[in-house]
Amino acid sequence: MPGRALYFTGSKSVSVREVSIPDPGADEVRVRTELSGISPGTELLVYRGEVAADLPADETIDALEGTFSYPLQYGYAAVGRVTAVGESVDDNWLGRRVFAFNPHESHFLADPSTLVPTTLPTEQALFIPNAEAAVNFAMDARPRIGARVVVFGQGPVGLLTTAILAEFPLTSLVTVDPCDRRRALSESLGADRSVTPAALDIDDADITFELSGNPTALDDAIDATGYAGQVVVGSWYGTKDVSLALGSDYHRSHVRVRSSQVSRIDPDHADRWDKDRRLDVVRSWLADTDLDALHTRKLPIDHAAEAYELLDDRPDEAVQVAFTYG
User: Fold this and answer.
1) Is 52 left (phi over 0), alpha (psi -120 to 50) or beta?
2) Where in the sequence is the domain holding 307, given as residue range(s)?
3) Less packed terminus of the chain by CB within 10 Å, N or C?
4) Mean pLDDT of the chain
5) How far apart are CA 81 and CA 282, in angstroms?
6) Kind plus residue range of the DSSP H or E element containing 307
C-alpha cells in the first residue's frame, strides 16, 4: 500500500495524496505514523487561508520547511513507530514509539535527534505539543499564590492550560468559551466555573490568558484584567484584524500585555531551562493526567476534508480530532 500525505491546497480545501514510502538515508530513521492530531488553532488558520503566504511555516521545526503558500503540508503532532534505520543509526531505534513535530502523513523520515521517544499511550502522546504550549504559558505568567486567573478559549490548548493552572494554589480560575461542551470539559479539568463571553463579569483578574484565536477576545481579556495585571497572549490571529479599545481606562491601568509562544524559551528562563527540560515536565505531567475526554473524534486520513469541516463549522461537536492511518 502506498504512503499517504495530507496537503492544504487552497482556502478550505485539502487533499490526501498517494506518495512513495521513503527509505532512510544513512543518518535517518523512517517512522510509520499511528495517529496524528489536528491543532485547530493554527491549522484552521492555514485551512481558511488566514496566514500570509510568504511567511515561513516554522523555522524551528525541520519538517516544516518552506512558506504557507499553497499547496503545503502542515501539522505538528504525529505519533508512530520507527520501522527502518539508516546504516549510521543505532539499531536500538527500531520499534521505538516516538512523537514528532511532523505534518500529517503515513510515513516520514527524520533525524533521530528531532524525535521525542515516549512510553505514553499513543492518544496521550498526541497532546505533547499543546501541553508544552500550556506549560510555557504558565511559566511565562508566573502565577502567585492566591491569584485570580481567567482563561479565554477552551480548545485543546486552552483546556490543557486550565488543567495545569488548576494545580496552582489560585484563589479563582475562571474560563471563557462559547461552546457548552468545552465549558463542561473545562470545569471537569479544574476550572472553578466556566462562562460564555457574554456572561463574564470580572474586571479584577491578576492574570488573563487569551488562547481563543478570536481577536475580539483580546479586548475582553484586557477589560477583565485588574490594575497592574497581566494579559498573556498565546493566540495567533494570522491575517485577521485586531482592533483594541485602548482608551483612558487602559492608559491608567498599568496592565501588561505580553506574547507567549512555545517555539523558543523566554530569555528570562533560559539560564535554567531548555526545550528538553520543558518536554520532560510535559511527559511527566501527561503520564499522570487523564485527558481521555478531550479525544472526541478519530477519522481515517482519507477523511481529512470532513475533519476540517467539522472543526471549522461545528466546534461544539469536537475538541481533539485525530487521523488514523490503517
Assistant:
1) beta
2) 3-127+291-324
3) N
4) 95
5) 20
6) helix 304-313
